What does this fold into?
Amino acid sequence: MTILSTLGHQQREELIDAVYRILKTQRLTPASLATVAADIIEMLEKRWPWVLSERDSAAFVDALLHPPEPNEALKSAAARYKARRKP
It folds into this structure.
């Protein structure tokens, strides 16, 4: 069973929306966003070599669709990264 093979229509739509929201932060044009999002979905469906149980697949998709809030370590790392990028 592949990662996305257990998704229903609604879950696929939610995943596509999540990918779109992530990519939207990359300052791409709407046409580029659609193309890259479609490429990511295609890669996940056809090329990703993982084979997961139904339970693991559901947990993976749930983590993508409902990521946890960043913890203090991640916030600190992001702040350090942003500070280094400033000229």
